[in-house]
Amino acid sequence: MAEATTAVEPTWLSERRRSGASLAQELPLPTKKLKGWEFTDLSGLEIDSYIRQSSVDGHHSAGDLPEGVVVTSLLDALTSHPALIEERLGSIVPIRDPFVARNDSEWTDGVLVYVPRGIRLEVPVKVELNVDGEGESVNWRTLIVLEEGAEAEVWEHHGSSGDDNDSLLNSVVELSVGPAATLNYVSTQDISEKSWIFSTQRAEVERDASLEWTALGFGSGRGKVRMETKLAGQGSSAKVTGGYAGGGTQHLDYDTIQEHSAPNTFSDLAFRGVLGDHSTAVWRGMIQVDEGAQQTDAFQESRNLILSPDAHADAIPGLEIKADDVKCTHAAAIAQIDPEQLFYLTSRGLDEDQSRQLVIGAFLQELVERIPEGEVREDVSASLERRLEEILD
Asked: How far lies 317's CA from each of 256, 258, 367, in Å?
C-alpha cells in the first residue's frame, strides 16, 4: 500500500486529526478500576514511548473487480474517493477511549473496500498487514462498505515475522452492511507475543442483511480487542465465531457486544479458547436489546480449555434487555482436559501426547464446524492446527 502521503490533507481530515489528538491527551488510559478492564493491566504500557510508524507494510489483492467496486489503500482513497471517505470514515466507531482517539489522530494507512448496490464479488478480497517495527506504533484503519444487495468476502490478517519485536498495533475496523447485503469478514492476528494490541471493531447490519464474522487471535502479549455488532435493521442477522490460543505469558482480552436495535433480528456468537503455559484470557460478552427490538433471538457462549495448571481464563456473559418479547440465552465454561477421555484414548493404543491432541482438536473442531464449508473453513482449521502445535511444542 501507499506510504504516508506528503500531500496536503483535506481540511475535514486535518480537523479530525487535531480533535483526536486533543481527546487522546484528555482521556486517561484505562485502569483496572474501570469496568471492562478489571482483568487487563496496562500499568506497564508506556504508550508515548512507541514511535509512530511513518509508513506501513500492508498490501491487498482482489483479482479482477466489477465496475464500481473499490479496493484500495485508505490514503489513495482520500484522493480517488474523497466524498465516500469523508462520509463513511468514523461513521461506525465513535471515539470513546484514548485508543480510538489516538487512531483517529495518527492513522497512517488502511484499506477501503466498497461494493456498490447489487454487485457480488466472486473472489475474496485479501488484506495483509505486517507489524515488525521494533519500538513502533502502527495505527491502521479498515473501512468496508456494502451497499444494498451487495455481497463480498474479505479476509484480513495482521501478523509479525517473529516473536522478538516489541511494537504496538492500534487498529479500528468499521463494517457497514447495507440492506439485504451479505458480508463474510475473516479477521486474524498473529503479531509478536511481545507486542501490545488494541483493536476496536464494529459492524452495523441493516434491514434483511447478513454478517458472518470469524476472528482468530494468536499473537500479542497484552491489550484488548473489542468486537461490536449492531443489528440496526429489521430482519438482520449476524453469526460471530471467535477463537484464541495462548501460550507463554500471553494475556488475551476479548470484549464483545451484540446490540439488537430493531425487531426480528438474530445473532449467534461463540468463542473457543485454548490456553497453555502461564497464559491468561478474559472474554466479556454482552447481549443488548434496545427498546422496541421485539422478537430478538440472541445467543452467546464462551468455552475455554486449560492445558496447564498455571493458565487461567475468565468468561463473563451478560444481558441488558429492554424489550419483553425476546429469546436471549448465554453459556460459559472453563475446564481442563477430562482425564477419563485421556484414559479412554490411551487404553486403545494412543500415547498421552496423541490423546491430548485429539481431545483439543475435537474441542476446536466444534468452532470450525460453525463456519460454512469452503476455503475459509479450511484456512481457519489449518491456522488452529499450526497454533496448537506451537503451544504443545
From this structure: 9, 11, 18
CB contact at 8 A, 196 and 169 = yes
Per residue in 157-199, pLDDT tens? 999 999 999 999 999 999 999 999 999 999 999 999 999 999 9
State which H helix or E strand residue 67 sits in: none
Return the C-alpha cell found at 217. Answer: 487471535
The identity of residue 142, as a single letter, is T
* pLDDT tens string 308-324: 999 999 999 999 999 99
| Total-model pTM | 0.95
Round to whole Å and give the CA distance between 326 and 256: 20
Distances (CA, A) of 118 to 12, 67, 175, 185, 353: 30, 12, 17, 18, 51
Q: Report the SS3 class of residue 364.
A: helix
Of 308, 314, 310, 257, nearest to 281 by C-alpha is: 314
Single-letter amino acid code for the residue at 166: D
Q: What is the C-alpha separation between 341 and 360, in angstroms, rounded?
A: 11
DSSP 122: S
Residue type, 320: E
Alpha helices in 91-139 (DSSP H): 98-106
Nearest to 248 by CA among 301, 310, 315: 310
Q: Are 199 and 142 in contact (CB under 8 A)?
A: no
Residues 268/239, Cβ–Cβ less than 8 Å: yes
299 or 377, which is more confident: 299
Report whether 306 contacts 335 (CB < 8 A). yes
- Pairwise CA distance, residues 178 & 365, whole Å: 32
Cβ atoms within 10 A of the Cβ of 344, count? 13
